[in-house]
Amino acid sequence: MTKLDILDHFESLKICVSYRLGDEILDHVPDTAVQEQVEPIYEKWPGWLSDTSKVRCWDELPEKAQAYISRIAELAGVPVRFISVGPERDQIIVM
After folding, report:
1. pTM beyond 0.85
2. pLDDT confidence band for 25 (50 / 70 / 90)
3. What is the distance between the terminal CA atoms of the chain, rounded to a whole angstrom?
4. What is the reported pLDDT for 12?
């Protein structure tokens, strides 16, 4: 996951979890042909409002950031192995 630090100043964040196409709920990104017709469905998450740019391990991340990352990993069905918290090479959390 890249650019986590960019999200440090948001009071809340959204994660798109599905799409509404008429009466149908899609759990995948719809085909290009119908993308203009769908409405994204979001989960709203609280922001952490603290600087993550100096964080170098998971346990130092704010709990709200940990929850947000965990939810994205759950939805994607893959673990997050690396989290960047800035542009420098040393600004990375290795899971």
Report:
1. yes
2. very high
3. 11
4. 98
DSSP assignment of the chain equals ---GGGGGG-SEEEEEEEEEETTEEESSPPPGGGGGG-EEEEEEEE---S--TT--SGGGS-HHHHHHHHHHHHHHTS---EEE-SSSTT-EEE-
Average pLDDT of the residues in 8-19: 97
Amino acid identity, residue 28?
H
What is the edge-to-edge ordering of all strands in the sheet holding 39-46?
A: 24-26, 12-21, 39-46
What count of residues does the chain have?
95
**Which CATH number describes the domain made up of 4-94?**
3.90.170.10
Q: 91 is written with which tokens?
A: 């600004």
In angstroms and rounded to an integer, the radius of gyration of the C-alpha atoms of the chain is 16
Assigned token pair, 11? 């009071």
